[in-house]
Specification:
Elements lengths: L5 E7 L10 H11 L9 E5 L5 E7 L4 E7 L15 E7 L6 H17 L1 H5 L7
Parallel strand pairs: 1-2
Antiparallel strand pairs: 1-5, 2-3, 3-4
């Protein structure tokens, strides 16, 4: 997979998502729910109602990819009333061992910080 260094757009879908959705279902949510083009290279993030599962949809020039993560304990989003559909920016830096892993990690960090009121008030970046 090819990821350019720099800023990557991360779009968080602001409503709980059915984790049974796959490529076509998530692509339809991007087009209709976020009013975006899923082929633009951005990361599209979907979280389930409980907040413990996340899927990230991405188009990598040859087809769609889905990354998934399920937390064994804790939640990405604790209170859905605080969450809104939004666009976030994730940064990649040169020399990272795996840019793919770095982007997914940044994506998860962005979503957690965007949904956590305490982390929004902190000025320091979250540790990995």
């Amino acid at each position: 997979m090819f990821f350019p260094e720099g800023q990557i757009r991360v779009h968080l879908y602001g409503q709980p998502c059915d984790m049974r959705k796959s490529f076509d279902g998530l692509q339809a949510l991007v087009r209709q729910g976020l009013d975006c083009n899923p082929l633009d290279g951005s990361l599209y993030v979907f979280v389930n109602r409980r907040g413990a599962q996340m899927r990230v949809l991405y188009f990598d020039r040859s087809g769609f990819c889905i990354w998934a993560k399920r937390l064994e304990s804790g939640r990405f989003i604790a209170d859905w009333s605080e969450v809104r559909t939004r666009e976030l920016m994730a940064a990649t830096t040169p020399g990272e061992r795996s840019v793919t892993v770095a982007l997914v990690s940044e994506c998860f960090t962005c979503v957690v910080s965007a949904s956590d009121p305490e982390s929004r008030s902190k000025s320091s970046a979250p540790s990995r």
